[in-house]
Amino acid sequence: MPDTAVAARTPMPQGAAPAAAPLVQVRGLKMYFPIYSGLLRRHTGDVKAVDGVSFDIPSGETLGLVGESGCGKSTCARAVLRLYEPTAGTITIDGRDITAAGRESLRQLRPTMQMVFQDPQASLNPRMTVASIIGEPLVEHTRMGKAEQRERIYELLDQVGLNRNFANRYPHEFSGGQRQRIGIARALALNPKFIVCDEPIAALDVSIQAQVVNLLENLQQSHGLTYLFISHDLSMVRHIANRVAVMYLGRIVELADRDALYEDPKHPYSQALLSAVPEPDPLTEAVRQRIVLTGDVPSPSNPPAGCAFCTRCPKVMPQCHVQAPALTAIEPGRQVACHLYSPNNDSTAGSTAAP
Questions:
Q1: Residues 209-263: pLDDT tens digits?
Q2: How far is it, in rounded angstroms, from Cα 220 to Cα 194?
């Protein structure tokens, strides 16, 4: 897949210069995990978890990343933050290339980029109090005194909607939603510019999910945060994201403006994915036709030749089994990796209308 830059949708202007460089720039990102086999443990292959992903996220905006389980969303997010060492590609955050940054350089950059993890219980140390958890970044990266740290911790608890009296309690004393708020407070401690939200609502009750998403939106507006928001919940992604990238087997197959994608998905996989989203209107739901894909997702250690989706695509063509489609712009603000939209294809784009 070529290194095609993808910019997130511009929201209402707040004085930001439209020509400014994106806060996050990812080019040709690959994350391969080696496979060793045999008595001599020889390198016999790779699990291609992320295979040539490129996108941009301008400051203050949200890029939603969606796809099936195992498609590489979380691996991509961790590689962007250099929690994994990328196999190839470049990552630029706030104007600094962090792809090959050393340990000390990366440590200095950590305050700029933070992460909210999927499981709030597993991501919090059960032996540390809330004050210790939130204050740990302050101890590691600042020279604040004890009094300053305490005031900052109280300020962060206020921002995420937790009582200050909870500061000396332990994670097991809180509900799932409250623990996720603690994780968000910890991520905010060093005033980051970029936060990766790796399925932050997946482990929460439905009644709590909207509260956490609304909190993230309010914090984004008040702090000017930039998000990479990963989720299986397409309704929540539609609510919070400016643009949405659809990922399949380690590659981005479509990226477009949020409203344009949900109203008229172009890639056959995007159409199938969005056809599974229930409609709130019972009359519309009664006549809506779902696209049911056959077969299983191929293994990332042995992806099919040509298009990664060719083994399940209802509109597959002979060319799809031979050549991988490039992620190309088919209209302003929309990019699709599909041979249906190739200039030399006889099929018309209108044949792939949304279900």
A1: 989 999 999 999 999 999 999 998 888 899 999 999 999 999 999 999 999 999 9
A2: 10
H or E stretch including 177?
A: helix 176-188
What b/e string do you get for 108-121 counting C-beta neighbours within 10 Å, with b at 16 or more?
ebebbbbbbbbbbe
Which residues contact residue 73 at a Cβ distance below 8 angstroms, ignoring those fewer than 6 apart? 65, 66, 67, 198, 230, 247
Reported in sequence order, the residue ranges of the chain that DSSP labels E, i.e. its strands, are: 24-37, 42-57, 62-66, 88-93, 96-97, 113-116, 194-198, 226-230, 243-248, 251-257, 328-331, 334-336
- pLDDT average, residue stretch 273-293: 80
- Phi-psi region for residue 169, left (φ > 0), alpha (ψ -120 to 50) or beta? beta
Using CA atoms, how far apart are residues 43 and 240, in angstroms rounded to an integer? 42
Distance in angstroms (rounded) separating the CA atoms of residues 306 and 283? 40
- Tell me how far apart the alpha carbons of residues 244 and 56 are, in angstroms, rounded to a whole number: 12
Would you say 302 and 233 are in contact if contact means Cβ atoms under 8 Å apart? no
pTM, rounded to two decimals: 0.86
The full DSSP string for 70-103 is: TSSHHHHHHHHTTSS--SEEEEEETTEE-TT--H
Sheet holding 24-37, edge to edge: 42-57, 24-37, 88-93, 96-97
Report the 10 Å Cβ neighbour count for 252. 28
Rounded CA separation 131/192 (Å): 19
- Residue in 94, 95, 77, 64 with CA at minimum distance from that of residue 86: 77
HSE-CB for 294 with a 13 A CA cutoff: 5
d(CA 15, CA 13): 6
pLDDT band for 7, please (50, 70, 90 cuts).
very low
Q: Which residue has the tokens 């933070």?
A: 114
Contact yes or no for 70/297 (Cβ under 8 A): yes
